[in-house]
Amino acid sequence: MDTALFNRRTARRSAGRPLWGLFQGAVMGAVTLGLTLTLGAPLPAAAAPLANGLPAPADLAAGIQPHRAIYAMSLLSARNSSKVSDVRGRMMFEWADACDGWTTEQRFQLRFVYSEGDEMAMNTNYTTWEAKDGSRYRFNVRKVINGEVDDDVRGEANLPANGGSGTAHFTKPEPQEIDLPAGAMFPTAHTLAILDHARRGERFFSRVIFDGADAEGATEVSTVIGQPGPAKGAAKDTLLRDATTWPVRMAFFPSHSESAQPDYEMSLRLLQNGIAESMQIDYGDFTVNAILEKIEALPRSGC
Predict the structure, then answer these.
(1) Distance CA 176, CA 86 (A)
(2) 81: exposed, middle or buried (Cβ count in 10 Å: 0-12, 13-18, 19+)
(3) E strands, 198-301, where?
(4) Residue 21 in contact with residue 188, Cβ under 8 Å?
């Protein structure tokens, strides 16, 4: 494969999408989260997922801690066949309360080193606004590779409160409208749904998520939630103390793919207040680790 083409595809996969609500959001082959799963196996749906367009339970949303987090990112492992020999960088994730909605911002600064000796610098900025009732969503994505703009995506999307099909309107890179399937969710609503399932002890669910990262449409995300426990870094910061945390594994499947294998997987330790303590992203031939370096509270809206 042409190295330049491979590098560009790697960049799109590695920081082209938000990491689901948590930076907003798969790992370790078959991950143990209190149970063992086979990669690519279909995950059963939960009994009572949050209905599309309905707000999360009031106490759940009230428990979210708006915050800004800095993560150190590095290569955790790579297969012998991988063309990626090293990954280094930082990611900033911000989740803020904007009264009528949630805003998120993710900024990646990553450097990839390849086995042939080439290097690639990638900067990605991803900002969103999402209505708290899950009905409206705005997104803006800009990716720069080796100093040149690689992607510039902007638009908005709507989902009806009755759980029916919705629409997404792109204004960049060119005007385009796509349909969203019935039952789809936006990223922050999906994160709140994970927390809702976790506290109810429901381990499995699968939903279609639209994040606006590209014009290819929605992504099916299968989620498994492990047993709760204390935060591992509780002694480091007051925002992590006395917070229940769950190990979460997500597998991401392109909506139009017939493959039984996910495009990539992600695992994380998710606190009840919405903070991700750590993350790992598995792209098949290599895995990237993200460790929380710094966390600070942002003000609550007071609305």
Answers:
(1) 37
(2) exposed
(3) 204-209, 219-225, 229-230, 244-254, 264-271, 276-282, 286-297
(4) yes
What φ, ψ does residue 239 adopt, rounded to 5°? -70, -15
Q: CB of 268 within 8 A of CB of 31? A: no
Rounded CA separation 112/73 (Å): 11
Rounded Cα–Cα distance for residues 103 and 117 (Å):
39
**Contact by Cβ (8 Å): 19, 281:** yes
Neighbour-count burial for 35-70, b at 16+ CB within 10 Å, e otherwise: eebeeeeebeebeebbebbebbeeebbebbbbbebb
Decide if 95 contacts 24 (C-beta within 8 A): yes
* Assigned token pair, 105: 């911002």
Alpha-carbon span 137 to 212, nearest angstrom? 9
Cis peptide before 42 (omega within 30 of 0): no
Q: Write the pLDDT tens digit of every residue in 11-60.
A: 444 444 555 444 343 322 222 222 222 223 333 333 333 444 445 566 77
d(CA 162, CA 32) in angstroms, rounded, equals: 36
Residue entry with tokens 């600064």: 109
Q: Are 152 and 142 in contact (CB under 8 A)?
A: yes
pLDDT of residue 81: 86
